[in-house]
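Please, structure for the following, as C-alpha cells.
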Amino acid sequence: MKRELSPIHLALILILSCVIFRLVSSIFPEYIPNVSPLMAIAFVGAMYLPGRWGWLVGPSTLIFTDLAFLQMNYRTEGSMLSMWTAISLVVYAIAGGLGVWISSRKSLTKIISGSVACSVLFYVAANTFSWANTVAYKLNPGYPGTLGGWVQANTVGLAGYEPSWLFLRNGIAGDLFFALLLLLILDRSVLFGQVPAKAASRAV
C-alpha cells in the first residue's frame, strides 16, 4: 500500500528544499541562475496543504531562508524584520492564498496563469519599494517622486543598469519552472491533463 506524505511533512520538505537551494546558490552563484523556488512553494505548495495554514508555507520559508540563513550568514545590518521583508511576507501570503483558492478546481492553465500573476505581483512590489526607497532617501541615482518615476522603475529602471523588465522576464521563467517541477513531483495528473484514478472510478 502506497503511503503518502502527511501535510506537515510535505511543508517541512518544501521549506528545507528551498533553504538548501538558497544555500547552494549562494555558494556557487556562477553556476546557478538568480532564481528561487520560493514563489512556487508559496503558490503551488499551498494547493496541496490544508487551507487553514497552507497559505503560510511561503512566508514561513521566507523567514527560514532570509531571516535565519541570510541574516546570520552575511550579518546584515539593521532590523531583522526590514520593511522589504515585511512586504515580501505579505506578497508570499497572497500567493499562498491564491493557491488555496484554486486548489479545489485547479488546472494546468490556472496554475500557469496564477504563477505568472504571482511573478508580476512580486515584480511590482519590489520595484515600487525600490522607487519609494530612492525617493524617501534621495538616493543618487534615483527615481523622480512622480507617477512617471514609478512607471520608470517598473519598466526601464535606472540608466546604466539592466532594464527592470528583464527582472520580470527572469522571474516569470524561474517561477514557472519551479511550479511545473513541483507539479511533476506532487501531481502529475494535473501537469499532463490526466484524470485522477478516484475521479475516473466515480465517473464509471
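Confidence is low (pLDDT under 50) at residues 75-80, 197-204. The CA atoms of residues 40 and 181 lie 9 Å apart.
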